[in-house]
Amino acid sequence: MPTPEAVPAAPAAAIDAYPDSYDAPVRRRLDRRALAIGGIGLGVYLSTLLATIPARIVAPLPGATGTIWHGAAPVDGGSRAEWRWSPLASLTGIGFAADVTVSGPQTALTARALLRPGSMLLEDAKGRAGFGLIAAIARPGFACDLSMQVDLARVAIGGGKQGADGRIASEPGNCGPFGGAPVAVPAMAFDVRQTPGMAVINLAPAGERRRPFIVGGLTEEGKLRLIVTAEGAAAMPFLSPPGGMKIETEL
What we know:
The protein starts with 11 loop residues before the first helix and ends with a strand. The protein has five helices and 16 strands. Helix content is 24%, strand content 45%. The strands form two sheets. A 13-stranded antiparallel beta sheet has the order 1-2-3-4-5-6-8-9-12-13-14-15-16. A three-stranded antiparallel beta sheet has the order 7-10-11. The longest helix has 32 residues, at 20-51.
């Protein structure tokens, strides 16, 4: 009975000439595993780094806590602002968007904010605000003890499209210069209406828009012009000398 022929063994010299031909698949598997582990580690590191970016990047205020995604910061006047990142609004608005709440003395406000380099857009700012919050933002040369109802559809500051649209209605209260005697002020309505190229401003006693205390406008380029009327100077002498005055500046 014939016996099968033995398969000749590969010469030792041939094996030595191509040593990688036997362990190459193993090495490729190990390399892919190392790359996968390294990628996961890098992803975890970057995610942790992004998740812990401090809140002061968004709100450069003393006492800011949390992260840029969900943080809080105190505001002059005793209020506290808190924000939570809105990823969809950030994508559609091409910027950093967040839902904002402000709480404090006589203050309970909500708004949506969109930050871009050199500009800020606030939308749907609604709620109540004490004068301390307005003073912290606008830095006027006088103080008031009154409460306001805020309903602003849009406020754009910075950039090439500045403007605003909405209303702030104040209750009767007292106002006066720092260190001076306060005077009683009536309930007032601050209206700002966006028109092509300019936001038109009107401050008047509540229900008496045609008897303004202050009128003016803000151009899209940021040029602000205000006129304190004679009636406005009489009702709020801390704003203007008798007879009224004009104010021109840039934001």
